Amino acid sequence: MSTKYPTYLLDRAKIEGAHTLAVAQKHGAWEALRKILKDGIGFAQVIQLVKDSGLRGRGGAGFPTGMKWSFMPDPVKDPRPRYVAINADESEPGTCKDRVIMELDPHGFLEGALIAAYAMRAQVVYVYVRGEYRLPYKRVADAVAEARKAGLIGKNILGSDFSCEVYMHQGAGAYICGEETGLMESLEGKRGHPRPKPPFPAMFGLWGQPTTVNNVETVFNAPFIVLRGAEWFKSMGTKGSTGNLLVGVSGHVNKPGVYELPFGVSCREILEDVCGGMWKHKQLKSFFPGGSSTGVLPASLIDTPMEHDAIKNTGSMLGTAAMIVMDEDTCMVRAHEIVARFYEHESCGQCSQCREGTQWLHQIFQRIEHGHGRLEDIDMLVTLSKGMAPGKTICALSDAAAIPTLAVIKHFRGEFEEHVKLARCPFLPAGTQRPVFAGAH
Amino acid sequence: MTKIILNGREVDVDPKQPLIHACHAHGADVPMYCYHPGLTPVGSCRICQVEVKQGEAPARVVVACRTPVAEGMIVETEAPRAHETRRECLEFLLKNHPLDCPICDKAGECDLQDYAFAEGQGEGRSNEPRRKLDKRKSLGEVIVLDEERCILCSRCVRFMEEIPKTPQLTIADLGSRSTISTFMDQPLRGNYQGNLADVCPVGALTLKQFRFQARVWNLKKSLSTCGECSRGCAISVEVLRNKDVKRFRPRYDPAVNQWWMCDSGRFSSARHNAEERLAPAARRGAQGLEICSVDEALAQAADTLRARANAVCIGSPFLTLEEAKAFAALCGTLGAKPAFVSPPATALKDELLNTGDPCPNRRGLLELGFEALEPAEAFARLAAAAVGVLAGERVIELQGRGELAALEGPRLICFDTHGLEGAGADVCVGIPEQVEKSGSWVNLDGHVGKLTIARAAPAGVEPLTRTLASLASLLATSGVAR
Amino acid sequence: MALPARLVTEFTELLTHYPHKQAALIPALHRCQEELGGWISPQTMQDVATFLGLEPVEVYGVASFYPMFRLRPPGKHVVSVCHNISCALRGADEVLQQVCQITGAQPHGNSPDGRFTVNTVECQGACANAPMFDLDGVYHEDLTAEKVAKILGSVK
Lengths: 441, 482, 156
Prior knowledge:
The complex is a heterotrimer.
Chain A: H1 21-26, H2 31-39, H3 43-53, H4 65-70, E1 83-88, H5 98-104, H6 106-119, E2 124-129, H7 134-149, E3 165-170, H8 180-187, E4 211-215, H9 216-220, H10 222-228, H11 230-234, E5 244-251, E6 257-262, H12 267-274, E7 284-288, E8 297-298, H13 308-313, E9 322-327, H14 332-346, H15 352-369, H16 375-388, H17 397-422
Parallel strand pairs in A: 1-2, 1-4, 2-3, 5-9
Antiparallel strand pairs in A: 5-6, 7-8, 7-9
Chain B: E1 2-6, E2 9-13, H1 19-25, E3 49-53, E4 60-63, E5 74-76, H2 80-96, H3 111-119, E6 137-138, E7 143-145, H4 155-162, E8 170-172, E9 179-181, H5 195-199, E10 205-207, E11 219-225, E12 234-240, E13 244-250, H6 263-266, E14 281-285, E15 288-292, H7 294-307, E16 311-315, H8 321-334, E17 339-341, H9 362-367, E18 371-373, H10 375-384, E19 387-391, H11 395-399, H12 401-406, E20 411-416, E21 425-430, E22 439-442, E23 448-451, H13 464-478
Parallel strand pairs in B: 1-5, 16-17, 16-19, 17-18, 19-20, 20-21
Antiparallel strand pairs in B: 1-2, 3-4, 3-5, 6-7, 7-10, 8-9, 11-12, 12-13, 14-15, 14-21, 22-23
Chain C: H1 5-15, H2 25-35, H3 42-52, H4 56-63, E1 77-82, H5 85-89, H6 92-103, E2 109-110, E3 116-121, E4 133-135, E5 138-140, H7 145-153
Parallel strand pairs in C: 1-3
Antiparallel strand pairs in C: 1-4, 2-3, 4-5
């Protein structure tokens, strides 16, 4: 692990027992909230501080967090109950960073959630954890219990006027519940069908009331910003992407893992220095910079800095900074058959383009991979993707299926053509077949 | 009202309704599947694409059903981008939708078929197998579901939740595996199931009653009013080849029934396909009741009425205002008080449409001075009379055919769709049924519901207004016993 | 039939977390699945519906949406193998084949002896420690053929 960059995110997480209140507090957890309440830092100041820091959402969309918090209405004019919902649904393929925070530093995370609630003058925080994350759920739930006992959660926190409850809530295996309005539908006890926007959650959220949904890692940054200031935060990362982030690297590297790095480190440095390079002495072929929804980049773009604008300029996206690395022996068609299968499986089914399109894309990828493709299928994949995105559906899952399809054909059309010409996958030994399993559920 | 510019024209639109409502109100033909003006909009089918421009922002293509109208909004429903997005959406919908048109009841009134014909690309480009699902899943006594045809618009789910307010349907599973389902395949309950076939934009939910019965373009459609209760829902009577009434369907009437009708009303259409009808008339002769012409029947009826005093006149609750006036005039000639049989309230009364009052024209008849008589009371009066005149469809049935047939005292003159055999039956004149007459009924709120002729009455049968008037005029010319 | 008293007590407390009862549905269904046979039966759906003041069909619509809820009785042990991209790149196909071979179950099915259900699942958030499976709610990561054999072999 490279030590040449200043760190803060995982410093406490690495300490044994840091998931307990005693150890966490010894290493700075809850100091920021104490400071806010003791020094009487107003909610508006906290929002301004977060705005000034340049913190952007870490859930995939990268929306400026301070601005998002400022969308909540004035409770004097709009006295309806208001909520903060933490999105711990973490289901973007390649992404495994929020669980690290929840498992190893749940108190730091809770503190961040409470600071968000304070800034937005909310009285209730729901932590929506994906159903499969049993250990992260338990660690956070235990931390909530400890914090409540210590007067850090509940009525009149630390003797102040600020009261805030924290409730744990489970998802049940649907990726679409990581979409903020799908999450709210799910939290309300319904099918996770995303809602059309407008109206936006700040005006019409949980049960129609003002709500802000934030990612785990996003709020996790808040205590550090409060304690160390906006200027400190901006000293890390790049102008448009400030601070450090947790980069998750998976696939064909020697040292896959979750690593704390400043924005702006090149993907090459991540691959070679941080992750020990390609496994088995293989060559890099391609990589997803930020999860399967972002679309592959070819090896030639490995020097791209891991930060929002730079990756956007390549035609991909930072997403969740979940870098998935693929070596020279990886079949791009097969890889995207898996990705297409995922979106077909996860589509909620509301929008015609997504429900039918995700299946159609998957079927075509399957046929090409299994040697039954035609040349016109490749163009059909492009045509369908253009019909599915951008912005034609209630939520961006349709875009998430379309974008990687367009990217892989843009960068690796030749592989598709070879599958068609040979009537089989050239990466499989001749005479062998891929096992075909139907999707889960 | 809000001013928007719709396809180059400035129009005033209702600010409480989504943009698609404004488009339709002003003749802009924007397609829709999941949107229904009577249900909460969800914006899921994505077909209702239009181009809107507001202020300085660039024009964008949006779904009209989830777009609020705003002052000065510029809307182009025919913009090329809007059409292209709709065409793409349609192609996705047709990817799995089976080519069932040749055998599908919905053909001819199918929103998907209509739009595919109007703007579809003519040839499918999918080389993938379509989903294979249950094509005839019974959802109870009324509805059959074809899962393959379903386009997951969720109108049926929302209908059950929002209109009769009995959630009974859900989307099960998700994504490409979605189907519409009841709980554990339980049958649907309630008196509003038939509306599901109307709200379904395609042939996924269809009526068992109508399955394979007719092609809708062969149906002659006439506007009318339902007669099953005093709500008087606006309906369309749909007749095949001037013979069978194949179905009743609700017509939109914001003052009475919105878009809906209950199943009791809807399926009362079957009542009008009875084979045997009295046509044109019958009179008692030496050998019993003999078929005769209307004039012959009326002549004998006039003789009978002249010969006996104390006529009792009992009308059917199905008399139209026009028929009732003619009947009242006859009553006046006879010195009798006009009355109608008022059958007891039914158990069908609900919070939605069905009033539980089986008299479609109670208010109209009462306002004309008719007396409402319970069947037993009406029967008692008839039994004590020297001569009874019964007029209007089903009046014999409502008094009890067997009981009337057993009456020995009074001479009975009946104007009904079927004749009466029995000791006292003197004259029977055939009359048009509800679907064979034009006229008006007044519903419980005072709303006037119109009936129009949906099919011809059997040969020789004349409108009741005319036969009653003829009888009255026969009596007037020659005097009548009082 | 009704929910067992211990669940009613639990769910009554759960209701206090939300302003509307329906919000307790998914956590309640999880607990029912854990406590009542490892699946959500029609009876369970009806009982939960009654408790929350919902229609059974609404509960069914929710239960059938979420992949974690089983609507058929499972085997004694449930093995969920991730076959999404990061795991596939690190040998998920081989893991799945091995799991099926050892357990005797095919994906989405139960083994003939009823000991196992094998599922394939989408990304479980263990990408940096791929390949993985979830056995009875516990993640087993960085799998090798040996580890798979050992873990499944020690299951009772």
